[in-house]
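Example (one chain per record):
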Amino acid sequence: MRVAAVCGAAVVAAVFGMSAAGAVGGPEADLAYHGSVDLAAGEVDVRFTPHNLGSAAVPDPTVRISWSEPLAEKQALPAGCVRADDRAVTCRLGPLAAGEVGERIGLRVRLQGAPSEVLLEFDTVASDTTGSGTAGSNTAGSAGAMSEVPGGGPQRVLALDTGDTYYF
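Predicted structure:
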């Protein structure tokens, strides 16, 4: 299998951003995700590591990974990851101190059909701070609300069904 650096055929837009609660101009936690993705015959292998590039700790971050194509009905997801909807999975990252690198997460999902390309979007979300839910355990219709974290946008990776590995 060829290994292709992300270029031309792969689109990567690394956008950091997770503002820590606190005073304006105070410490911030900036989460980024670094890893790789492969697409072959409708199966997507994703491996990534969260990095807190900011100066503030993040107590309970969760990443939402969305695919541009719908996921197959049945998925075998690793511990800490749950299906959020027909095109997304959320994974609990665990606490990240300022400047810390988190645990590597790897998952394989099956898409409906075998598309020639798929766009993945990594977006950091925060758990409900009222204590009614736990980040990473929420699915549509559960009691715990998930909300996007202000101050940034998603990180995107386009993978083609070439058997190549795309790095982000």
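Caption: Residues 138 and 144 are 6 Å apart (CA to CA).
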